Amino acid sequence: MGWRLQGLIAVALGMALTAAAQDAKPMDLDGAKWIWLMAPDANLNTIPEQSCFFRAGVAVTERERIVTADLAVTADNLYEVIINGKPVGGRAANPDGWRSTKRFDVSSLLILGDNTIAVHAYNTAPSPAGLILKLHVVLTDGSIVERVTDATWKSSLEFEPNWDQRDFNDQHWAPPREITAHGAPPWNKLAVPDKAEPPSKAKESPVEENIPDDFAWPSGIVYVGDDRSFTLAQGSRGGAWHTLGNMIFNPGSTRAFPEHDFPGPMKVGQTLRAIRWNSPLVKGGADVSVGGGLSTILVDAGDGGALGSPTVSFDGKWGYFSMVRPHQDAPPPPPRPP
């Protein structure tokens, strides 16, 4: 009895090791398509700055166990991957980093049965946009389960609560457009790392747990609205698109020194806005409801004008920002693209 049991264990282990050995070849993105939600006649080179949300299901048979499960992914420009509601990883900085794919070991996140892959991708400037992903799973019997990005995925340009959860109903979402296969222009062939990194852990709160009862919470935030990023034409750096918001820019002749924020070192817009929380009324300006708070315009640079990310004095009493306005005798600015 004992010898027979040991033999069964040895056979099972041998099957797993054999399957892993057969799958030892480097991973690639072959078979995957670059996808994005866009009209069939949309110009790929002028996809606007926007978020795009993607979902796809993948079934893993309950008759076998998972030996390895690797996920290779990149997006032009930024992205975050979630499996079954749990974070996998992504890239939240360096819009030009799409050339470097990431490879994650997601074996701990997959379950036997139905799984859901969710991706939030972000295009940081009017330019080509796309997501490409490949999930490669090896089971104990040597069989392989793969899921690649293609037109069978679901996609949306609108955020919805719980969109990345398994039980979310995505039937009203649209299929994305297959832009091109892996290896074709404009992204060409990309290499996948030889080793997979573990999935990201949930972010820990930077706030201390023991918060004093008399702690003075911020009553609101100030931010730049109505994007006015300056787009440079292709050709400046290997055909890549860039915006002033993606460059290091310190406003001259001012004491303002902006911090790095998403998606770049400095945001440029037409209006300086404020949201004050837990306030029934914000006096002055054009108030609109934003995320449960009230947003009001503090400064408007006007048509053709722009202002930069604000900074605050050490005592919190003053805010500093740089702004340009067109001369009153200047010709009217050209219409903004839709």
Describe this structure as you would to a colleague.
This protein has 338 residues and is mainly beta. Helices cover 6% and strands 35% of the residues. It contains 1 helix and 21 strands. Strands 12, 15, 16, 17, 18 and 21 form a 6-stranded antiparallel beta sheet that branches. Strand 8 and strand 9 (144-148) form a beta hairpin. The N and C termini lie far apart (75 Å). Residues 1-24, 203-207, 233-265 and 279-293 have low confidence and may be disordered.
> Would you count the extended β strands for me?
21
Tell me the span between the first and last alpha carbons. Answer: 75 Å
How large a portion of the residues is in β-strands, by DSSP E?
25-35%
Helical fraction equals under 10%
Question: How much is the radius of gyration in Å?
Answer: 25 Å
Count of helical regions: 1
Q: Provide the structure class.
A: mainly beta
Q: Shape from CA axes?
A: globular
Low-confidence stretches: 1-24, 203-207, 233-265, 279-293
Main beta sheet strand tally, sense and closure:
6 strands, antiparallel
Which whole number gives the mean pLDDT?
A: 76
Give the H and E element order: HEEEEEEEEEEEEEEEEEEEEE
Tag the structure with descriptive keywords.
338 residues; mainly beta; six-stranded antiparallel β-sheet; 1 helix; disordered N terminus
Short description:
With 338 residues, this protein is mainly β.
Task: Summarize the topology.
Layout: H1 2-22, E1 33-36, E2 50-60, E3 66-76, E4 78-83, E5 86-91, E6 102-105, E7 113-123, E8 130-139, E9 144-148, E10 154-156, E11 177-181, E12 220-227, E13 231-232, E14 242-243, E15 268-276, E16 288-290, E17 293-300, E18 306-308, E19 311-312, E20 319-320, E21 323-324
Antiparallel strand pairs: 1-11, 2-7, 2-10, 3-6, 3-8, 4-5, 4-7, 8-9, 12-15, 13-14, 15-17, 15-18, 16-17, 18-21, 19-20
